[in-house]
Amino acid sequence: MGMIQEFKEFAVKGNVVDLAVGVIIGGAFGTIVKSLVDDIIMPPIGWLTGGVDFSDLYVNLKPDSTFTSLDAAREAGEPVIAYGLFLNNLIAFLIVAWAVFIIVKAMNSLQRKAESEAPADAPVEPPKDILLLEEIRDAIRAKGV
Q: Transmembrane region positions (predicted)?
């Protein structure tokens, strides 16, 4: 089988398509979470802390220079630890992790419900070779051997 044919079979399998859809939706979900953190959650937290903008919190590793903002320090090429941006990203991660947890929990609940509704005593068909052996046995018994 040629490599192109093999690639076609790989690319059109359901798992690859499902993964692509998941990545696209995940990217869109990430944008929504970023907006939720930056535009809805962080402003009230900043207001409660006296107007602190977390995204602009940083530690300048050269104490002899002062800058009015993180952007100004970065433009000057100063080494900084941008812990405010880290806090924003940490909050965004926790929101995404919580949302994924809720989704997985709901999916597990639905799966358990579907499994409990499935008939438990459904007759299991024995394999064909077992059926054939039983027929042979019965035929031998019928002959009286």
A: 12-33, 80-104
Number of structural domains the chain divides into:
1
Structure tokens at 130: 């077992």
Q: Answer yes or no: is 77 within a domain.
A: yes
* In a domain? residue 36: yes
39-92 residue pLDDT tens: 888 788 878 878 777 788 888 888 787 888 888 888 988 899 999 889 888 888
Say if CB 17 and CB 29 are below 8 A apart.
no
- Give the rounded distance of the alpha carbon of 99 from its chain centre: 9
Angle between helices 14-35 and 83-117 (to 10 degrees): 130
Q: Identify whether the C-beta of residue 100 lies closer than 8 Å to the C-beta of residue 110.
A: no
Predicted confidence band at 14 (pLDDT cuts at 50, 70, 90)? low
Neighbouring-strand partners of residue 81: 59
Tell me, what CATH number does 132's domain have?
A: 1.10.1200.120
